[in-house]
Design goal:
It is a single chain. The protein is an alpha/beta fold and 398 residues long. The chain folds into two domains: 8-50 and 293-392, Aspartate Aminotransferase, domain 1; 66-290, 3-Layer(aba) Sandwich (Aspartate Aminotransferase, domain 2). It is 39% helix and 16% strand. The protein has helices spanning 51-63, 73-87, 102-113, 129-136, 157-167, 187-199, 228-232, 240-243, 259-271, 279-291, 293-314, 341-351, 378-394, and strands at 38-39, 96-99, 119-124, 140-145, 147-149, 152-154, 169-175, 203-207, 234-238, 252-256, 320-321, 329-333, 354-355, 357-358, 369-373. It has a seven-stranded mixed beta sheet, sandwiched between helices. A four-stranded antiparallel beta sheet has the order 11-12-15-14, covered by helices on one side. Helix 3 (102-113) packs across helix 9. The termini are far apart. The relative contact order is 0.18.
């Protein structure tokens, strides 16, 4: 995984993304009055991909033929090296089912391992497609609410187990690292999740799409890496999309060690009519995992600086930052503003000129919070924080 050295200033460049079909920049929130809004809601970054990825895509484009394409041994090798070196997780190529995305894989898993009316468990507040895909597939949504204590979210394991037994839960959707609260679960927490799920024969579907965004003091551990038993009862969902800003290319790698689970999941994917990754997704993913490590390491340093900037800016205000252990999505506690969720949304959009993601979207425990994407050049973040500071002062919140 060698690459050209990346300087921090690489991420300072502001790229104009308007009129590119970008969901982030070419859509506007409802009820908007502010003309020049800064979008900080959806989870993609405002940074260019590693140059090696760009060059690999250009090379394929210049070739000019875009027939059916499959992954090769090199793809498997660089992917395996990535997880072994960065997470100490030994995977095998045959475990991997390629899908267009993690949410697609979760939906396929729900259909493969449960029936209509069965219960699926999540921990809220959590990435909202979890709930959406459960209810859309006519399953019973069961939620165990995360507990905020001393500025840190924790799992209520007693409640988690009770929800499993009371509802005969078939599948637990784990978000690791957790979006939106920024937790990176410890080994002890993951082992307790595993103990409960193994005890009650609950399949774990672990969304680990943010696993490369881990900050100092935390370590991401794939839950499937903790024991052979857990590996046999876990489906691990990964993707280069968040790590390398490749979401639009639609590629994910879904690992299932258990051959019985893997066959069932593959059949569920096949039923949708899906077959192979697209050509550009394969080329980009392979180049990213092969050459992108220096780029990512520098990006992590840049994001850490952005987090410090955000933390310092909010000091003394009525908005507090929940300390992020992972992801580039910041969870802001705005409850001290004493606004309804509707009023809070209006305040950020029409008074501060910032489009954040409403915390209520993420389910139980999300009311009064906002999710903020800080994966942007420092100059944009500074402008956003200046606007927020001004809006808070005008309301006498500072």
């Amino acid at each position: 995984m060698k690459s050209n050295k990346i300087d921090l200033t690489f991420f300072d460049t502001v790229h104009d993304r308007k009129n590119t079909g970008s969901i982030k920049y070419d859509t506007l929130p409802s009820g908007r009055r502010y003309n020049d809004i800064i979008p900080m809601w959806i989870a993609d970054m405002d940074f260019k991909v590693p140059i090696e990825v760009e060059n690999a895509l250009l090379s394929v484009s210049e070739h000019g033929i875009f027939g059916y394409t499959n992954t090769d041994d090199e793809y498997d090798a660089v992917l395996g090296d990535w997880y072994l070196q960065r997470m100490n997780w030994q995977t095998q190529p045959e475990w991997n089912i390629k899908t267009p995305g993690v949410v697609f894989a979760i939906a396929a898993a729900i259909n493969a391992f449960s029936n209509i009316g069965d219960s699926i468990l999540i921990c809220q507040p959590v990435y909202y497609p979890f709930a959406n895909v459960v209810t859309a597939n006519k399953r019973n949504l069961v939620a165990s609410q995360l507990q905020l204590s001393g500025g840190k979210y924790e799992i209520d394991f007693d409640d988690l187990e009770k929800k499993i037994t009371d509802n005969s839960v078939k599948v637990f959707l784990l978000c690791s690292p957790h979006n939106p609260v920024g937790r990176v679960w410890t080994k002890e927490e993951l082992l307790e999740i595993g103990r409960i799920c193994l005890k009650h024969n609950v399949l774990i579907v672990s969304d680990e799409i943010h696993s490369d965004f881990i900050y100092k003091g935390s370590v991401h551990i794939p839950i499937a890496s903790l024991s052979d038993e857990l590996a046999e009862q876990t489906i691990t969902c990964t993707a280069p999309s968040k790590t390398f800003n490749l979401a639009g290319l639609q590629a994910a790698n879904i690992f299932a060690k258990n051959p019985v689970l893997r066959e069932k999941l593959q059949k569920a994917c096949t039923k949708t009519g899906y077959s192979n990754l697209n050509t550009m997704a394969i080329v980009a993913a392979k180049a990213a995992y092969k050459y992108g490590e220096p780029w990512l390491n520098t990006l992590l340093e840049y994001l850490q600086n952005n987090i410090s900037l955000l933390h310092n800016s909010l000091a003394g205000s009525k908005i507090s930052l929940i300390h992020p252990e992972g992801t580039y999505l910041m969870w802001l506690d705005c409850r001290a503003l004493n606004l309804t969720d509707r009023e809070l949304k209006n305040f950020f959009i029409n008074e501060a000129g910032l489009w954040l993601h409403n915390g209520s979207t993420f389910g139980a425990g999300g009311s009064g919070f906002m999710r903020m994407n800080i994966a942007c050049p420092k100059s944009i973040l500074k402008e956003a924080l200046s606007r927020l500071d001004k809006a808070l002062k005008e309301r006498s919140y500072l």
